[in-house]
What does this fold into?
Amino acid sequence: MMRLPRFRYLSPRTVEEAAAWLAESSGDAMLVAGGTDLVPNMKRGQQQPSTLIGLRGVASLAEIGAGEEVAIGAGVTLTRLVHDAALRAAMPGLWQAAAQIATPHLRNMGTLGGNLCLDTRCTYYDQTYEWRKSINFCMKKDGETCWVATSSPRCLAVSSTDTAPVLQALGARVRLVSASGVRELPVADLYANDGMRYLTRRPDEILTSVIVPTRAGQRSTYWKVRRRGSFDFPVAAVAAVASFDGDRVAHARIVLGAVASRPMASPKAEALVDGQPLTDEVIAAAADAAYEVAKPMDNTDFELVWRKKMVRSLVTSALRELRGDDTRAARLRLQRSTLVM
It folds into this structure.
């Protein structure tokens, strides 16, 4: 049985109180909301904070605003996102992403902020302490070598968050609060392509909310592939968002997930789609361009060559769905779910 190490637990009631405690900590305090990622990591010895600052008692983090921009609290559970009819109608891609995370039990606990800050994953990292010790650990924790590519100067652990690609494609921003002030930055700027230092959020900052612009007539979708029809992390994913002028795409965003240490946009694929009707030829060209961006490594489930090939299929299906095609059969084949809207 894997047991949690000893730690001190603090339970603030306001963001300000949490930020103050975080600022006063010795530097190894961590934030916890649902704990669906952090707690298993602590049991495996991957993360070893001396203090946990629990955010479940901060009521303001569980609020959802309304208006031209929707502010979603970082403490909103994934289950609540899935069941929010207004968000589902306005941002179907975000709903699809949240609905495919883990299982109902884990979605009951897991939060939007937690999924955005999800630790990067790797075959050589997500193991028990004894397993990792037997290979002399890895660069991400306690070792010096990235066992995925032993000559790599940086960690290649992969980003497995489902909600980040969609929110990046939607042009969302995150609000970060610390004892020294508040700042906002685009979701795209929250991430760095480094498996160890994958977040640009400072250790003293709390991700409090996500601000998502809403645009009339905008369509969004999210596709992922994994071994099982539920529970598993993505091994390849794509978020696609588009607004239309008649049958032509006015503006599109295509963001790949689980093929690097951060969500990866494909500007070339977006440029091929912008201003064009979504014909089969345009879709095929965009899928090829996105394929070029995908750089998966041999550190998750399935062969990396197959995962890269799946990017073409996922982008093709996503753009066909934005075009208005009936893609339920494709979803059932790729994801074992139709995700009927």
About this structure: DSSP finds 13 helices and eleven strands in the chain. The first helix runs from residue 15 to 24.
